[in-house]
Amino acid sequence: MLGGVSIWQLLIVLAILVLIFGTKKLKNLGSDLGSAVKGFKEAVNKEEDESDKQTQSKVIESEAKKDDKSA
């Protein structure tokens, strides 16, 4: 049970979707959705990597300033 929805109800909804759209359109929709999610994940990971690089460069700069002041 998923929040009051049984497996039989899900199967009935799936059967209705197949009858309305057909398997080919559902397959295309699934692959489009999958590629959109993959693109979103790649964009998030790229943004995190860039953020990490900026943080690392700021840490290096602050350490260099500390070394200059102590010298």
TrEMBL record:
Pfam families: TatA_B_E
Superkingdom in the source lineage: Bacteria
Entry's transmembrane regions: 6-23
GO MF entry, a single one: protein transmembrane transporter activity
Membrane topology: Single-pass membrane protein
Listed GO CC annotations: TAT protein transport complex
Key words, A-Z: Cell membrane, Membrane, Protein transport, Translocation, Transmembrane, Transmembrane helix, Transport
InterPro entries for the chain: TatA/B/E (IPR003369), TatA/E (IPR006312)
Region (Disordered): 44-71
UniProt-annotated location(s): Cell membrane
Example of a GO biological process term: protein transport by the Tat complex
Record note on quaternary structure: The Tat system comprises two distinct complexes: a TatABC complex, containing multiple copies of TatA, TatB and TatC subunits, and a separate TatA complex, containing only TatA subunits. Substrates initially bind to the TatABC complex, which probably triggers association of the separate TatA complex to form the active translocon.
Family per record: Belongs to the TatA/E family.
Function comment: Part of the twin-arginine translocation (Tat) system that transports large folded proteins containing a characteristic twin-arginine motif in their signal peptide across membranes. TatA could form the protein-conducting channel of the Tat system.
Protein name per UniProt: Sec-independent protein translocase protein TatA
Species: Marinomonas spartinae
This protein's encoding gene: tatA
